[in-house]
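Severity: low
Component: inverse-folding endpoint
Summary: output formatting inconsistent between runs
Steps to reproduce: submit the following structure tokens with default settings.
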């Protein structure tokens, strides 16, 4: 925490260009991609997905948005990885939330797990340090959460004058009054209170959050994938959705159509004055 008791602001510096990954080190979420704002590392059936901007406290900008969306798709498609872990590089912050230098606010529809991308595989948040603003949304949408005992959660948007609304889904995932306190007051909730409220499953000593998350992930990876996927879908159908979350799910279905070969075929056949040949993809 800063000396004035407030959550930290993202440092006003430009991130340095990261070096290329050496053999055996994490790869960008997009294989062969130039940026590594989000990395993806497979470890014995577990995908460790890292927001990799430690110089900016892992703030969420366009490159993180795109990297997370790619990472969820890669996890879905991976025949080896049965579980995902979402974490932030370093120990100062899981994520400081919105990058204040970004020109546009983040569009959480596109990169929130289970909203922008349907995710049948279990996802664990591994949190160290600060978890600010929209990063709280990412944690809430994970299936499990491990946090260090010195972790801090805060949603300062009411004090800053902007919010996207996806955070309202928190009220369906922890007790209502605690969710409203976190959302409306914009004050700091420590890891112990987050654990007691049910936002966090396990508390770890500082620096041990990823170890604890890996221990949970390996246990999950040994379970039956079809059963876990079924239970995730049934649980998702049971938990109430906020209006913004529901709109995000509708957006996802629209995007699936608009990005399809059938959509392009429909346009081309209409322009050519011929019967379309749809393939269902």
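Observed output (run 2 of 3):
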């Amino acid at each position: 925490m800063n000396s004035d008791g407030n959550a930290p602001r993202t440092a006003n510096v430009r991130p340095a260009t990261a070096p290329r990954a050496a053999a055996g080190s994490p790869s960008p979420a997009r294989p062969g991609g130039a940026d590594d704002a989000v990395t993806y590392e497979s470890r014995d059936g577990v995908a460790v997905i890292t927001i990799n901007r430690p110089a900016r406290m892992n703030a969420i900008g366009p490159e993180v948005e795109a990297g997370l969306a790619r990472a969820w798709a890669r996890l879905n498609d991976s025949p080896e990885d049965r579980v995902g872990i979402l974490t932030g590089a370093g120990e100062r912050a899981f994520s400081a939330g919105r990058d204040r230098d970004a020109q546009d606010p983040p569009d959480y529809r596109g990169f929130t797990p289970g909203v922008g991308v349907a995710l049948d595989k279990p996802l664990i948040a591994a949190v160290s340090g600060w978890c600010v603003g929209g990063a709280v949304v990412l944690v809430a949408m994970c299936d499990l959460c491990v946090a260090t005992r010195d972790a801090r959660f805060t949603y300062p948007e009411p004090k800053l004058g902007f919010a996207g609304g996806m955070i309202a889904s928190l009220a369906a995932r922890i007790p209502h009054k605690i969710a409203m306190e976190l959302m409306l007051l914009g004050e700091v909730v420590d890891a112990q209170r987050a654990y007691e409220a049910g936002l966090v499953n396990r508390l770890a000593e500082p620096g041990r959050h990823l170890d604890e998350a890996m221990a949970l992930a390996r246990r999950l990876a040994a379970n039956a994938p079809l059963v876990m996927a079924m239970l995730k879908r049934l649980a998702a159908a049971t938990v109430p959705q906020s209006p913004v979350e529901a709109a995000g799910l509708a957006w996802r279905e629209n995007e699936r159509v608009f990005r399809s070969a059938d959509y392009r075929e429909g346009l081309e056949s209409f322009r050519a004055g011929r019967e379309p040949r749809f393939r269902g993809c």
